[in-house]
Amino acid sequence: MSRAFEDLVAEAESVPVDGWGFSWLEGRATEERPSWGYARLMGERMASASVALDVQTGGGEVLAGVSRLPAVTVATESWPPNLANAAALLRPRGVAVVAAGDGFPFADDAFDLVVSRHPVATGWVEIARVLRRGGVYLSQQVGPGSVFELTEYFLGSQPPGMRHRRHPDRARAQAESAGLEVVDLRMESLRTEFFDVGAVIYFLRKVIWMVPGFTVARYRPRLRALHDRIQADGSFVAHATRFLIEARKPT
């Protein structure tokens, strides 16, 4: 039996959105995973590194899943709620969790591995600075027009240029401009489905750049219409884009 609109809204508004885990969406939304398996690749790189940095670690969930960490592992995060979660999760494993934004409080040539999953922005110059010669940057990033169907549902048709932000070709150019060699670059489009309006609300509360300024009160009529649409169709379908980039500092 389908749940009432008001019940779904109340539940989704009350659930905490700290950290960067999405376990609350289990059974309520699905997203295909990229074929390259970022967590596996990251674990492989970590196992052979000696000094590693995880940039914008969020709540530390991805790094915590690595079975074998380097002797020295550091994670940065700038958002206070995420920082507290990351510290609680990672410090027991010997990871130094540091409050840092775009600039890194680390010496030049400090790390042989830098990783980042879904960074808001990539500071290529800083990454190149802290990497040792021969060091590697590995990152899975949100690609252009990701889940854009949801953005346009609430905001209407967007300028064509909006769909091309965060393009992997731009990431390649920025990496090379910072003096790095791109050794791997792949992108995939991944089917994403939301099975109830509560899942949409939770997602937009957490991924705040999808619909800037989103609140239930502001978009209640659109949410109600979306609820009815999901009830009729079974889900709201969108497509996430992800790209993998691996870059090396020349020796």
How would you describe the overall organization of this protein?
The chain is of the alpha/beta class. It has one domain (5-248): Rossmann fold (3-Layer(aba) Sandwich), CATH 3.40.50.150. The protein has helices at residues 5-14, 38-48, 61-64, 80-90, 124-130, 148-155, 168-177, 197-206, 216-233, and strands at 29-31, 51-54, 72-77, 96-99, 111-117, 131-142, 181-194, 236-248. The protein has an eight-stranded mixed sheet, with helices on both faces. Strand 2 (51-54), helix 3 and strand 3 form a beta-alpha-beta unit. Helix 1 (5-14) runs parallel beside helix 8 (197-206). The longest helix is centred in the last third of the chain and has 18 residues, at 216-233. It is globular.
Write the layout of secondary structure elements.
Layout: H1 5-14, E1 29-31, H2 38-48, E2 51-54, H3 61-64, E3 72-77, H4 80-90, E4 96-99, E5 111-117, H5 124-130, E6 131-142, H6 148-155, H7 168-177, E7 181-194, H8 197-206, H9 216-233, E8 236-248
Parallel strand pairs: 2-3, 2-5, 3-4, 5-6
Antiparallel strand pairs: 1-7, 6-8, 7-8
Helix pairs in contact: 1-8
Coarse shape: globular
Per the CATH scheme, the topology name is: Rossmann fold
Figure out the total of helices: 9
- The structural domain count equals 1
Q: From the helix content, strand content and strand pairing, which structural class follows?
A: alpha/beta
Q: What's the rounded overall pLDDT mean?
A: 95
Gap between N and C termini:
62 Å
List key phrases describing it.
alpha/beta; Methyltransf_11; methyltransferase; eight-stranded mixed sheet; 251 residues; 25% strand; Rossmann fold; 23S_rRNA_MeTrnsfrase_RlmA
